[in-house]
Amino acid sequence: MPTLRLRLLVLGALSLVLVLLLAAAGGYLQARTALYEVQAHNLETLATRLAADVDDRVRTRQVLLEQGAANLQLAPQQFERQGSALITRLRYLKGMFNSVLLYDLRGNVIADYPALPGRLGLNVAGQDYFRTTRDSLRPQVSEPVRLRGGLNRTVIVFTAPVFSTEGQLAGVLGASLELYSPEFFGELKNIAIGQGGFLTVHAMRSRLTILHADAGAIMQVAATSDPLLQRALAGRSGYAAVGDSRGVPVLQVYRRLRNVPWLLGVVLPLHEVTQPASLLGRQHLLLVLSALLLLLPLLWWGVRRLLRPLGRLQNQLTVLRRDPHVEVAPLGCRELQRIGHDVAAAFRGRADCEQQLAAREALFSSLGEVSPMGVLVVDAQARLQYLNPAGMRIIGLPAVQAGDRLGRHWLDDIHPDSLPQVAGQWQQLLANGRGFELLCRLRHSDGCLVMAELHFSELAGSGGERRFLGLLSDVSAREEARGKLRAEHERTQLVLGTIGDAVVLANRVDEVEYVNPPALALFGVPASDMLGRLLGVFMNLVSPETGLAVPLRDIERNAAGKPLALDLLSRDMRVQPVLLTLSVMHGHGPLQGCKVVVLRPDGARLHREQPRREASYDVLTGLRNRRGFLTALGEVLDDNRVHYQPHVLAIIDLDYFKAVNDSAGHQGGDLLLQDVARIMQRQVRSGDIIARLGGDEFAILLCHCEQEVAERMLHELLQLIDAHVVYLGERTFRISASIGVTMIQLQDERAQPVLSRADDSCHQAKQRGRNCLVLHAGAL
């Protein structure tokens, strides 16, 4: 299609065909849907009427048989003796049934009408219809049964119980009916439903097909491939279009009978449902083709007339190419007039861009000439396209030789030591377009070392050719100063490392920046765990007199520069007497506000206080003993009466500890107690007090702690103890804990009442099934 006119004609014709086809398809689909719904409604109505008719036939026979059984009223012995006489009274049932039978309580046929040789004495006790009638004392309709002996007949048996005057079951009255007799299913088989439709009847209990257009399907189990039939057999009715046993799409409707567990279905081939819509669709298609043939000449004339202004637009473009600033002549329509103005604006814009580009090129050259940084522009092949005088000075060449460097590979000026790193970054820039910056060595004309900072990025808007901009800065003096600073820092660290005291340097926000080897040994942690973290995480200081925490902020505010005798609480809860001196750097500069902490082990005080410490601490776990805990609790109570702060006391009693002690011995029990002590030490805060009161009983004093925070911490402690597994040889042991909690009140003066409240709560936790926490009611 070389011309626009032909393209528009084809496009218009295709659009017209598409619109007409869509309209026809929409009408066809709407008509098909309407036909489907109407036909489905008709089939539902037909199925309902036929199901009601079959129900009436079944119910009429059931009522007639029940009335006949109600008229007998004989005792079981009389019923068996008078069977022949009784059957003559029931001959009138022959008009509704094929045969009438009397059964005794054992299921034996004692009389039949009309008489059939070999039937008297036949036992049917194993048949479902007899057994169900006898057990439920209610009338029944049997499943369809195909008679033996080559008779090719299918019957159903109606049964009704016969009672004596005292209400005792005397026997069973039965009647058989051939399904396909003219008075029952014979008429249904002859009902015509369209051209290929038919009726089906299925037994819901046995899922046998009773009536079907396909004779081979009768008395066969219904196919499981029909989902609608399976839903209907399960008790849900409805209609749907599915494939039959041969794969032909059909519309099916099912209705359940009320008086007998059968399912009646109406089946109609789907092509008969949609046949009128198919005829209508063919008529619409012929109408579309006729309309297209009539409208094509009109469309051709309209396209030619609409495209006349394009010739004038072509002439206008020729004029604009010579003079972009000429006025655009009228072109005949607003759309083409706008196109003409837009094209003229584009020509003018291109001319303006060319002028601006020339000005920017001149500005870039000027900036490059006066810039103190080296500027280089390279192409994708790493060839130099521009290098300013500053760049020439950095590599030690006069500016007049810049023209000789153009076209050369820019990596030739990189020192061999830095060449692999720079070349790798350059390849990544070519691959992903992301810029890079790094320090590298450059070749210098006089052989001296030049350290340069190199920045490279891709120039945007460079057209089809990729170009890259590089910036060079001579940082040799800066790197030399940094080297001297690093050497000075190493000397300082060497001097601090030889000092015997522990030295820690922290910045103004208490983050550790330096720690010498004696300090690492004192804290018992590697340097990687301390650097960059808060000093308070590792340095937990307590007063040797009160045992309460001493914050660094208080030392900085009240005792900066003075040696203080304190106890250092390590992460494994060991208490180490130390002499601490805290100094704060003043003045101006980067070290302003930094803190220097010097710690010296206080051996004399350790030796002096050793007896007192042994009397207050448990030898096995390293925790406080009962005496030490009561002392600390008394100090907290004294302080609490002066200035109330929330404190929480918890008594922890281990569950099932005696079983571990009996099984693993005292050595295993001691190991378990040490494990529990370590779990508690890790869970609580550094200022909290932990004690082993005796045996497997522990206590925790959470100082300055709100009730909600304490409950959360103690619940987590319960989970940690419950999850802990102790390995003793080849055996494993697990325990849990019961915790009683109380809040210290403002009126508490002595330690014993507080301990009693927590101990009572602990006993309640034991009684509630262990491994739980109980808060004393007075703390609510």
UniProtKB/TrEMBL annotation:
Start and end residues of each GGDEF domain: 645-778
Domain PAC: 436-487
Pfam families referenced in this protein's UniProt entry, alphabetically: GGDEF, PAS_4, PAS_8
Organism the protein comes from: Vogesella fluminis
Residue intervals of the PAS domain: 360-433, 488-545
Transmembrane regions listed in the UniProt entry: 284-303
NCBIfam families the UniProt entry points to: GGDEF, sensory_box
Domain of life (superkingdom): Bacteria
Cited SUPFAM superfamilies: Nucleotide cyclase, PYP-like sensor domain (PAS domain)
Lineage summary: Bacteria, Pseudomonadati, Pseudomonadota, Betaproteobacteria, Neisseriales
Protein name: Diguanylate cyclase
Entry keyword annotation includes Transmembrane helix: yes
Keywords, sorted A to Z: Membrane, Transmembrane, Transmembrane helix
